[in-house]
Design brief:
Order of helices and strands: EHHEEEEEEH
CATH class: Alpha Beta
Largest sheet: 7 strands, antiparallel
CATH architecture: 2-Layer Sandwich
Distance between the termini: 34 Å
CATH superfamily: START domain
Number of helices: 3
Number of strands: 7
Strand order of the largest sheet: 1-7-6-5-4-3-2
Shape: globular
Helix content: 25-40%
Length: 150
């Protein structure tokens, strides 16, 4: 099994517009489907609740790592942490990195989630599979949000 998921999309919009959708916590919440309690701050934990249908009972918690304007936004989290009865806090989180680069047609967005080799073996394969599918959908979601097509 691979250690990382990587997805890429080119959005026909300027980097500044994509960056805003990615790092403004309310806009991020709209396309990612999470209700966040406040802005993203490097070194701080972002909290809130998932609003994705069927997952509304789940809390969102991610530690913001880096915010390099219009280039890199990263955080760590516990992938596919969907059992509300389980405490995932002792697990080593994965690292999610969004990288933006200007292209002739707009903005290339690359999302990479790495560190699956540190996820407990009992849930590693499912977490990888679900997040690989999830990131595919989230790339479509941010594109639709930025372009106003959904």
């Amino acid at each position: 099994m691979e250690n990382k998921v990587e997805k890429q999309i080119e959005i026909a919009a300027p980097v500044a517009k994509v960056w805003d959708a990615l790092t403004d916590y309310e806009k991020f919440g709209a396309w990612f489907r999470v209700k966040l309690e406040g802005p993203f701050v490097a070194g701080k934990v972002s909290t809130g609740y998932i609003t994705w249908p069927g997952y509304e009972h789940l809390k969102w918690a991610a530690t913001v790592k880096e915010i390099v304007p219009q280039k890199l936004f990263s955080f760590t989290w516990h992938p596919y942490a969907v059992d509300p009865e389980k405490d995932y806090s002792q697990e080593i989180p994965t690292l999610v990195e969004f990288r933006l680069e200007a292209t002739t047609g707009g903005t290339r967005v690359t999302v990479t989630e790495s560190g699956f080799d540190k996820v407990p073996e009992a849930r590693r394969a499912e977490a990888f599979r679900m997040n690989e599918r999830g990131w595919e959908q989230q790339m479509k979601n941010i594109e639709e949000y930025v372009l106003g097509t959904k």
